[in-house]
């Protein structure tokens, strides 16, 4: 991922063609000639990739192969550059030779721009529908409408997909070279693996009436008791687990300021040098401070993108 200028799940080649969502006749015709991504929400939103190629490629099937989706309404994702519509369906994965089921977390960073965009959008839409079967305003049951981009109840009350904005920040000391340091934390709610401890960037949801930059200041102060300055926006990506938009930042802080963790949020926090982070990424052991081995965020996350950006000196 070193040298990447775009977060791994911020890539796409799909034209969302939003003007088609309210055209039932066009959608019906589009379904008959569509490419379809089958995604199984009962298996953590897994989809199929081919096993005979590297990097992995999503398996998109012709609509005629998928057939009538039954209870799962087709979700219109957009139109490919060659003009073919793309839909997603939440359904059990078929048994197809030469394929294997994968999650977006596993392969998002490995997929090409086209497949990354399709998988991310499909999972975000499926997860939104799973949580909105009933209207929060009327309590009535809702149905899929507008090609999957809204739900409506019997009284015509409509809801549209929403994402929850969250900020994530790589806090660093502003020092160049191998001894420059960044501040990472281990979340108190993460599962514990004996002998390992995962460290990542600090993150939190943007609260009502708050800017993303203000959330950076507040969350860092709340989680580790450190003041930051020179906040720099670095990029964003969807994180559909279940429905966040991660707004990535870098910010500077003084390593001499004492760390005071909020134990309900952060179990451990410490400064790491570029030399240490480079060693972890190279597969060499780095002590977390108590004998545990340091583990970094997964490659599909914007957290690792921010770490690489700092490591490579782009801050």
Secondary structure tally: strands: 17
Radius of gyration, CA atoms, in whole angstroms: 22 Å
Helix share bin: 10-25%
Strand content: 25-35%
What features would you describe in this structure?
- This protein has 315 residues and is of the alpha+beta class.
- It has 2 domains: 18-130, Nucleoside Triphosphate Pyrophosphohydrolase, CATH 3.90.79; 164-311, Nucleoside Triphosphate Pyrophosphohydrolase, CATH 3.90.79.
- The protein is 21% helix and 29% strand.
- Strands 10, 11, 13, 14, 15 and 16 form a 6-stranded mixed beta sheet that branches.
- The longest helix is centred in the middle third of the chain and has 18 residues, at 113-130.
- The mean pLDDT is 94.
Can I get a quick summary?
With 315 residues, the protein is of the alpha+beta class. 21% of the residues lie in helices and 29% in strands. It starts with 23 loop residues before the first helix and ends with a helix.
Keywords:
single chain, alpha+beta, Nucleoside Triphosphate Pyrophosphohydrolase, 6-stranded mixed beta sheet, 4-stranded mixed beta sheet, 7 helices, 29% strand
